[in-house]
C-alpha cells in the first residue's frame, strides 16, 4: 500500500538552490515541511488506493489474538510522535500511570508510585499489528479494576482500553528521527474522563499531542467503497449508510440499507482497475446509490451529509468512531485510519 | 562553630563585610567593657547606613551592649529589681532591633538566651520576636539554636515561634549547608502536630533533590493519611514530586492554592526594612517572562489549564528512557539544572550544557530564556517537538475551523500574539506557523485576527518564492483584491516586513560563507532570485491595487514605503540586487497631487542612484564577471525614469520620449503649452508652495505671477521648498542635477548610460 502515490511529486527543485538547505539540509524538520507542502499543493488524498488485503504479517498470527479489539466501538485520535518512549520501560510506565490516575481521581492528595490502588494499569505490546517491518509495534494500555476480595483475583474488570498503532506509516517514519516513536493512531474505548487522564499523562511524559480524528464525508465514501470491495466469505451485517439533513428543530437522519451482496454487485459493475480503488470509481459508486435513491424517494442525497457507513468489514462514524467487525481486514482498515491520522498531524 | 569563622564567598557576605568588621569591633569593645567597666567610646564603622546619629546613637549602642550582657549573664538580682531591669533591657533590645536590626553576634547571644530557658516563657517570646538582623544571620547561630530545641528546655509555643522565625528569616541566613545537614532532625519534628505546618514550610524552603528519599515520601504520605489534605503537606509533597516524579504522584487542583499564608508572618515590616538595608530601595521587578500571566478561566478539555503548557522539567521520561537505571542512581544524579530555578541570563550561560528541558516543549513560548536556548541549540528533536506541538495546537485552536465557535476567538488571538512575540524575539519564523498558513489561509475570511494573521505572514521563513507562491501568496492576493483599501495597506505593510526579514536573514547568512563547503554563487544566486521574485510580485500587487483604488494617495504611501526598503537593498543588506518600481507606480507618484508623495519618490530615486552607483563601482573594482552584474536594462530603466523626472521638475520638458498625446486632447484641455507648465513651480503637488513662497517674499505684489520664479528667484524658491521639509527633493536635486551658476534649464545628463 503506497499511501502517497502522487505522480507529480518529482524531487523538488533538484539540488536545492536555497541557502537554508545548507543549514537545515535534509533535516527531519525540513522533510516535514516538504511533505506538508506537497500535501497542500496537490489533491489532499491520493487518487487511488489498494483494496485491503490480508497482510502477510498478520497471517502469521493467531486469528483469535486480536479478537478482543473487534466488535467494540473505538474513538479515534491522531497523535504526534512520542518523544523518548521506550518499549523496554512498559512496566515502569504502568506504575507511573496508575499513580497518576490515582492522583487525578483524588485531586490534591498525593499518592506513592507503586502503592496498591484499587485500579491497575497495564501496558503490553500487540505484536504483529503492523503493515511493514519498519512500523513500530502497536501497544495496548488497559485500566483494570482490582477486586477487593482476594478470592476474586481472576476477575479483573477492564474499565478502559486504549491502543496505539502505526500501519504502513512510512510517510511519517521517514521524516522523524530515532528519538521519536511514531504511533499516529490512537483508539480508545471507555469513559472519556479516563481517556483524558491517560492522554494528559502521555502528553506530559512524551511531549506529544492528541487530537480527535474526525472522518469527513469524503473519506467516509472512500471507506464505503474500499470496504465494499473486500472479498468476504460470509457477510455478517448489511451495508448501511446514514445521511444527516440539517433542519430545525431537529436534524433528520436518512438511513439507507442495502444487502451486502447487492452492494458488492454494484461495486463490481463500477470497478475496473483490479486490486485498486480510484477516485472516479468511488464517485461513481456513490452516484449510483444517489440516483437509485432519488428515483424512489425524490431526495437528492448528494445535498445532505454522509455521517456513517457500516459494512461487514467495519463501520465508521463522522465523529471519529469506528467499529471493526472483520478480523481479516483489520490491518487494511487500520492502514487507512493511520493514513488519515498522519494527514491530520502533518 | 565560632562566630568569627566565615567563608567570604557569597555576594551578600561581601556587601556587608564592612559591616561585620564593625560588629567585630563592637563585640571586642563589649568584652573590654566587661573587664574594666569603663565607658566605651568606640565608634561604629562609617559605612553603616543607620548608625549615623552622633552622640545619641552612641548611647543607644551602649544601652544595647549592656542589655545583651545582662541577658547573657542571666538573672542574678532579687526578683523586684530584676523585673525592672529586665523590662528596661528588653525594651532597649526591642527598640534597637525594630529600628535598625541586630548584629549577627547579638542575635547569636540572644537566641541562645531565648531557647536555653534562662528566663520565662514571656521573655523568651519577646526576645524571639525581636530577632531581626541588620542584614544577616550567621548559620552557626541557627545550628546552636536548633541544638537547644533538642535539650527540651523550651516550651512548645517557643518552639513554634522559633520555627516561624526561622522560616521568615530564611533568606537572611548566610549559609545553609549545615542547616541542610539537620534535614533529618527537622523532618522528625513533623510528628509534632503543632509544629508540623511550620516545619513543613521550613522543609519546603530547605529541600534539595538529595533530601528526597523513599522513606520520607512514605512518612509524608502517612501523615497525609492521618491529617487529610493539608495545604502545607500538599506543598511539600508536590515539591517532592517535582524532584522525584518516579516516587510520587500528586495532582493539584486547577486553582493554585496558597500553601503558606503571608499573614502569619509577624515580621513582615521588619523583613522589608532588612531587605532595604541589603539592596537599597526595591528595584523594579525584572520582567523576564514574555507571556501574560497564566490566566485561562475557560475550562478546557483534557484538564490542561492553558493552551500553552506549563513549564515543568519532568525528567521522568528522560530517566526512564535509560534502561536499567536504578532508583538510587536517579536520586543521586543532580548534575542537571532544574528549569524552575532558571531566572537569569547568566544562569542560562552557566548551565547551558546541563539544562533540564521542559517536559512539554511548547512551554518555551512563554519563557524568553528558553527561547534563547532553542535559538542556539543544534538538537533537531527539540525543534521537532516544538513543531509538532505548535502545528497541532494552531490547528486545534484556529477558530474558523470550528463553525460558529467564536467563543475562543480571544484565546486564539492571544495564542497568536504569544507566538508572534516569540518569533519577533527570535527574529525568526516557525515552520509550524508556515504550514498552518498553508492550511488556513485558503479558508480565512480576512477579518478574523487580521493583524495577527498578517504578522504571521511577515514571519514566513525564507524559502523559494515559486514554491510558496501557490500555497500562500495566491490565496492572499485573492483576498487582497476584493478587500478594502485598509486591508490592502496592511497586506503591503506585512509584505514589506516579510521582505525585510528575508533580507536580514540572507545578509547575515552570507557572512557565514566559510562554514559551507559548496560553491556559494549558485545558492546565493537562487536566493537573490527568490527575493527579486517576491519584489516583482508585490510590485504587481501594488500596480493592480493602484488601478483598483484609482491612485489613492494613502495606498501610494504604503507602496512607496515598500520601495524605500527595496531601493536600498544593495547598500543596506550588501546583496547584489536592485529592482526598480514598475511604471504603474512611478508615474502616479510623479504626477501625484500630494507633495509628500513626490518628496518620497525623489528620496527613493536618490537612493536608487546611490545603490546603482555603488554597484557599478564594485563591478569595476572586482572586474570579475559574476552572475550578479546588473543587466543594462536596469540602468536604462533608471535613466529613463530619471530623465522623465528631471523633465517634469526641472527642465520643463516633460515626456520628451515615448509619450504621445493627441493634440486635440491637449487643446480641449486648454493646456496647449503643457510642455512649459510642468516643473517645480507648476507641478500640481507644489503649486501651493509656489503661491505661499510668492506671498511670503513679495507680500505687496497684487498678482501672483508664477512664471516670475526663475533665475535668482528660482534658487530662493528651492531653498524655500527645502526649508519646508522636502528633504527627499533636496537630496534628489543635489545628486541628480548639476547646477551651473545660471541655474535655469540646465539639464544634467544622468550618469549611467549604456
UniProtKB/TrEMBL annotation, chain A:
Cellular component, GO annotation: inner kinetochore; nucleus
Chief location bin: nucleus
Keywords, in A-Z order: Centromere, Chromosome, Nucleus
Location within or outside the cell: Chromosome, Centromere; Nucleus
InterPro entries hit by this protein: CENP-L
Keyword Cell inner membrane: no
Sequence similarity: Belongs to the CENP-L/IML3 family.
Name of the protein: Centromere protein L
Gene transcribed to yield this protein: CENPL
UniProtKB/TrEMBL annotation, chain B:
Protein origin, superkingdom: Eukaryota
Keyword Cell inner membrane in record: no
Record keywords: Centromere, Chromosome, Nucleus
InterPro entries reported for this sequence: CENP-I (IPR012485)
Localization of this protein: Chromosome, Centromere; Nucleus
Primary location: nucleus
Region (Disordered): 1-25
Coiled coil: none
GO BP terms in the entry: CENP-A containing chromatin assembly; mitotic sister chromatid segregation
Keyword Nucleus annotated: yes
Compositionally biased tracts (Basic and acidic residues): 1-22
Cellular component GO terms, alphabetical: inner kinetochore; nuclear body
Family the entry assigns: Belongs to the CENP-I/CTF3 family.
Record-given protein name: Centromere protein I
Species, as recorded: Panthera tigris altaica
Gene that this polypeptide is encoded by: CENPI
Amino acid at each position: 500500500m503506497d499511501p502517497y502515490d502522487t505522480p507529480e511529486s518529482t524531487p523538488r527543485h533538484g539540488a536545492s538552490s536555497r541557502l537554508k538547505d545548507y543549514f537545515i539540509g535534509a533535516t527531519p524538520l525540513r522533510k516535514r515541511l516538504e511533505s506538508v507542502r506537497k500535501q497542500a499543493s496537490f489533491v489532499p488524498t491520493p487518487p487511488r488506493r489498494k483494496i485491503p488485503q490480508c497482510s502477510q504479517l498478520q497471517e502469521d498470527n493467531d486469528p483469535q489474538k486480536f479478537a478482543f479489539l473487534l466488535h467494540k466501538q473505538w474513538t479515534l485520535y491522531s497523535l504526534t510522535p512520542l518523544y523518548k518512549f521506550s518499549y523496554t520501560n512498559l512496566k515502569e510506565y504502568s506504575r507511573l500511570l496508575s499513580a497518576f490516575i490515582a492522583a487525578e481521581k483524588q485531586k490534591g492528595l498525593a499518592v506513592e508510585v507503586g502503592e496498591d490502588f484499587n485500579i491497575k494499569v497495564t501496558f503490553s505490546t500487540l505484536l504483529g499489528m503492523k503493515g511493514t517491518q519498519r512500523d513500530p509495534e502497536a501497544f495496548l494500555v488497559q485500566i483494570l479494576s482490582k477486586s477487593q476480595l482476594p478470592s476474586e483475583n481472576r476477575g479483573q474488570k477492564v474499565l478502559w482500553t486504549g491502543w496505539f498503532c502505526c500501519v504502513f506509516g512510512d510517510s511519517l517514519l521517514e521524516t522523524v528521527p530515532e528519538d521519536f516513536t511514531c504511533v499516529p493512531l490512537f483508539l480508545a474505548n471507555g469513559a472519556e474522563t479516563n481517556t483524558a487522564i491517560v492522554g494528559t499523562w502521555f502528553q506530559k511524559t512524551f511531549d506529544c499531542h492528541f487530537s480527535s480524528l474526525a472522518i469527513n464525508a469524503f473519506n467516509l465514501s472512500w471507506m464505503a467503497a474500499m470496504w465494499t470491495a473486500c472479498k468476504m466469505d460470509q457477510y455478517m451485517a448489511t451495508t448501511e449508510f446514514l445521511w444527516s439533513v440539517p433542519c430545525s428543530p431537529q436534524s433528520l437522519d436518512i438511513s439507507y440499507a442495502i444487502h451486502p451482496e447487492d452492494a458488492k454487485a454494484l461495486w463490481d459493475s463500477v470497478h475496473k482497475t483490479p486490486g485498486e480503488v480510484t477516485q472516479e470509481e468511488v464517485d461513481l459508486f456513490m452516484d449510483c446509490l444517489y440516483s437509485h435513491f432519488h428515483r424512489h424517494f425524490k431526495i437528492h442525497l448528494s445535498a445532505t451529509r454522509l455521517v456513517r457507513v457500516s459494512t461487514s468489514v467495519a463501520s465508521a462514524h463522522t465523529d471519529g468512531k469506528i467499529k471493526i467487525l472483520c478480523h481479516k481486514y483489520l490491518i487494511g482498515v487500520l492502514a487507512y485510519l493511520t493514513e488519515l491520522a498522519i494527514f491530520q498531524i502533518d | 562553630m565560632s562566630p568569627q569563622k566565615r567563608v567570604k564567598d557569597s555576594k551578600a557576605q561581601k556587601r556587608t563585610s564592612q559591616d561585620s568588621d564593625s560588629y567585630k569591633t563592637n563585640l571586642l569593645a563589649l568584652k573590654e567593657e566587661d573587664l574594666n567597666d569603663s565607658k566605651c567610646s568606640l565608634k561604629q564603622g562609617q559605612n553603616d547606613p543607620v548608625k549615623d546619629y552622633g552622640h545619641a546613637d552612641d548611647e543607644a549602642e551602649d544601652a544595647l551592649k549592656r542589655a545583651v550582657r545582662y541577658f547573657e549573664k542571666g538573672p542574678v538580682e532579687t526578683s523586684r529589681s530584676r523585673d525592672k531591669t529586665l523590662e528596661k533591657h528588653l525594651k532597649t533590645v526591642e527598640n534597637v532591633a525594630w529600628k535598625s536590626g541586630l548584629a549577627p553576634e547579638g542575635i547569636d547571644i540572644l537566641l541562645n538566651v531565648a531557647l536555653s530557658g534562662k528566663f520565662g516563657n514571656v521573655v523568651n517570646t519577646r526576645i524571639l520576636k525581636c530577632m531581626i538582623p541588620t542584614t544577616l544571620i550567621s548559620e552557626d547561630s541557627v545550628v546552636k539554636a536548633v541544638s537547644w530545641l533538642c535539650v527540651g528546655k523550651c516550651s512548645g509555643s517557643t518552639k513554634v515561634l522559633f520555627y516561624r522565625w526561622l522560616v521568615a528569616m530564611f533568606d537572611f541566613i548566610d549559609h545553609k549547608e549545615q542547616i541542610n545537614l539537620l534535614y533529618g532532625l527537622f523532618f522528625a519534628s513533623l510528628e509534632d502536630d503543632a509544629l508540623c505546618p511550620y516545619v513543613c514550610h521550613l522543609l519546603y524552603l530547605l529541600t534539595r533533590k538529595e533530601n528526597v528519599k523513599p522513606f520520607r515520601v512514605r512518612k509524608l504520605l502517612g501523615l497525609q493519611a492521618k491529617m487529610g489534605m493539608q495545604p502545607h503537606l500538599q506543598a511539600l509533597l508536590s515539591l517532592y514530586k517535582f524532584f522525584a516524579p518516579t516516587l510520587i504522584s500528586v495532582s493539584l487542583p486547577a486553582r493554585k492554592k496558597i500553601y503558606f499564608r503571608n499573614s502569619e508572618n509577624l515580621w513582615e515590616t521588619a523583613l522589608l526594612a532588612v531587605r532595604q538595608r541589603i539592596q537599597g530601595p526595591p528595584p523594579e521587578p525584572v520582567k523576564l517572562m514574555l507571556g501574560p500571566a497564566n490566566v485561562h478561566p475557560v475550562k478546557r478539555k483534557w484538564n490542561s489549564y492553558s493552551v500553552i503548557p506549563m513549564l515543568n522539567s519532568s525528567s521522568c521520561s528522560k530517566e526512564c528512557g535509560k534502561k536499567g537505571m536504578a532508583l538510587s542512581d536517579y536520586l543521586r544524579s543532580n548534575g542537571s539544572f532544574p528549569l524552575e530555578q532558571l531566572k537569569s541570563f547568566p544562569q542560562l550561560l552557566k548551565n547551558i550544557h546541563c539544562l533540564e528541558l521542559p517536559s512539554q516543549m511548547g512551554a518555551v513560548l512563554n519563557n524568553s530564556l528558553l527561547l534563547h536556548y532553542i535559538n542556539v541549540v543544534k538538537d533537531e528533536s527539540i525543534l521537532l517537538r516544538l513543531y509538532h506541538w505548535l502545528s497541532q495546537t494552531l490547528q486545534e485552536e484556529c477558530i474558523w475551523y470550528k463553525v460558529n465557535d467564536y467563543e475562543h476567538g480571544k484565546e486564539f488571538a492571544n495564542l497568536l500574539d504569544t507566538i508572534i512575540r516569540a518569533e519577533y524575539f527570535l527574529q525568526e519564523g516557525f515552520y509550524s506557523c508556515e504550514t498552518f498558513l498553508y492550511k488556513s489561509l485558503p479558508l480565512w475570511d480576512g477579518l478574523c485576527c487580521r493583524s495577527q494573521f498578517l504578522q504571521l505572514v511577515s514571519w514566513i521563513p525564507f524559502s523559494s518564492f515559486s514554491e510558496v507562491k501557490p500555497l500562500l501568496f495566491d490565496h492572499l492576493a485573492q483576498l487582497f483584491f476584493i478587500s478594502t483599501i485598509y486591508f490592502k495597506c496592511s497586506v503591503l505593510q506585512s509584505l514589506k516586513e516579510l521582505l525585510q526579514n528575508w533580507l536580514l536573514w540572507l545578509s547575515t547568512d552570507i557572512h557565514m560563507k566559510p562554514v559551507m563547503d559548496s560553491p556559494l554563487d549558485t545558492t546565493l544566486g537562487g536566493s537573490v532570485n527568490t527575493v527579486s521574485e517576491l519584489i516583482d510580485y508585490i510590485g504587481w500587487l501594488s500596480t493592480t491595487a493602484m488601478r483598483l483604488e484609482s491612485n489613492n494617495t494613502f495606498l501610494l504611501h504604503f507602496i512607496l514605503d515598500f520601495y524605500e526598503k527595496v531601493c536600498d537593498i544593495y547598500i543596506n543588506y550588501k546583496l547584489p540586487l536592485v529592482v526598480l518600481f514598475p511604471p504603474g507606480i512611478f508615474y502616479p507618484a510623479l504626477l501625484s497631487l500630494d507633495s509628500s508623495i513626490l518628496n518620497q519618490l525623489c528620496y527613493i530615486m536618490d537612493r536608487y542612484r546611490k545603490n546603482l552607483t555603488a554597484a557599478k563601482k564594485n563591478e569595476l573594482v572586482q572586474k570579475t564577471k559574476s552572475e550578479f552584474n546588473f543587466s543594462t536594462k536596469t540602468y536604462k530603466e533608471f535613466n529613463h525614469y530619471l530623465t522623465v523626472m528631471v523633465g517634469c521638475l526641472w527642465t520643463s520638458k516633460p515626456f520628451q520620449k515615448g509619450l504621445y498625446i493627441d493634440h486635440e486632447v491637449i487643446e480641449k484641455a486648454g493646456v496647449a503649452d503643457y510642455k512649459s507648465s510642468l516643473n517645480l513651480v507648476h507641478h500640481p503637488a507644489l503649486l501651493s508652495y509656489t503661491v505661499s513662497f510668492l506671498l511670503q517674499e513679495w507680500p505687496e505684489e497684487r498678482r501672483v505671477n508664477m512664471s516670475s520664479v526663475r533665475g535668482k528667484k528660482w534658487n530662493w524658491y528651492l531653498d524655500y521648498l527645502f526649508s519646508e521639509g522636502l528633504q527627499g527633493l533636496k537630496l534628489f536635486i543635489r545628486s541628480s542635477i548639476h547646477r551651473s551658476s545660471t541655474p535655469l534649464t540646465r539639464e544634467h545628463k544622468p550618469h549611467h548610460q549604456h
